[in-house]
Amino acid sequence: MTDLPGIVITGASGRMGQILVQTVTASDACRLVGALERPGHDWVGQDIGTAMGGAALGVTVSDDAVATFAKAQAVIDFTAPAATVQFAGLAAQARAVHVIGTTGLTPEDIAAIDRAAHHAVIVRAGNMSLGVNLLTVLAQKVAAALDADYDIEIVEAHHRHKVDAPSGTALMLGEAAAAGRGVDLADVRDSGRDGITGARKRGDIGFHAIRGGDTVGDHDVIFAADGEQITLRHRATDRSVFARGALKAALWGQDRAPGHYDMLNVLGL
């Protein structure tokens, strides 16, 4: 059993952190070797299983990333941008696969992650689910097939606690649609319309964010022309789809060459 890849979960007390712990411990392809939390968190020093309200798992929650990563073959990270950038460097030093589901990363954050990827495998995606990544491929193909007479609008909905907008998934879909059109998303992105905005600019890609309740994640890519609309839709009803995708990425990354990969690489798309 000890030859199975060892996985560390960062932000272990969070909603995704706990689901990731459950997903890893239920798998027969890997083992949980670490659970990380910020210094001063109530769970530090406790067994992660009992902290979650269940049976002990034999893994103590730590606030020491260096020591925890040293035991790992992979780190799964759904935290916050500043923490993720720090973890990227530390995971690279440990030569552990770093799977990043964190969203809200700036271009500077991504540049720092790129530097870490020179030394280790990093798999980063705005969404880890199979369905969303298939949707990304479809969005690019449809955008490539239709000209700018079809306005592209991306509508996403998430729970009230989400702190970034548009979502990482919405931006991933926007990047795919822009690639299909052969343009840079930064040049055509239109977010947060309010007031007298004027007519819609031809070729723009619009973004709209809905926040409310416990919505896990809904994403629509709308292609609207005179007389017809095409809508591509993905709805997540359970966060475990993200955890399963992240674990698949962590296992896929074993023995790969250093580099900055995404879920399309993992899924062979």
TrEMBL record:
Tell me which InterPro entries the record gives.
Answer: DapB_C, DapB_N, DapB_N_CS, DHDPR_bac, NAD(P)-bd_dom_sf
Transmembrane stretches in the record are none
EC assignment: the record states: 1.17.1.8
Positions of (S)-2,3,4,5-tetrahydrodipicolinate binding: H159, G168, T169
Enumerate the active-site residues: H158, K162
Annotated Pfam families:
DapB_C, DapB_N
Q: In which pathway does it act?
A: Amino-acid biosynthesis; L-lysine biosynthesis via DAP pathway; (S)-tetrahydrodipicolinate from L-aspartate: step 4/4
Q: Which UniProt keywords apply?
A: Amino-acid biosynthesis, Cytoplasm, Diaminopimelate biosynthesis, Lysine biosynthesis, NAD, NADP, Oxidoreductase
Q: Give this protein's Gene Ontology molecular function annotations.
A: 4-hydroxy-tetrahydrodipicolinate reductase
Spell out the Gene3D superfamilies in the cross-references.
Dihydrodipicolinate Reductase, domain 2 (3.30.360.10), NAD(P)-binding Rossmann-like Domain (3.40.50.720)
**Its function?**
Catalyzes the conversion of 4-hydroxy-tetrahydrodipicolinate (HTPA) to tetrahydrodipicolinate.
- HAMAP family given for it? DapB (MF_00102)
What name is this protein filed under? 4-hydroxy-tetrahydrodipicolinate reductase
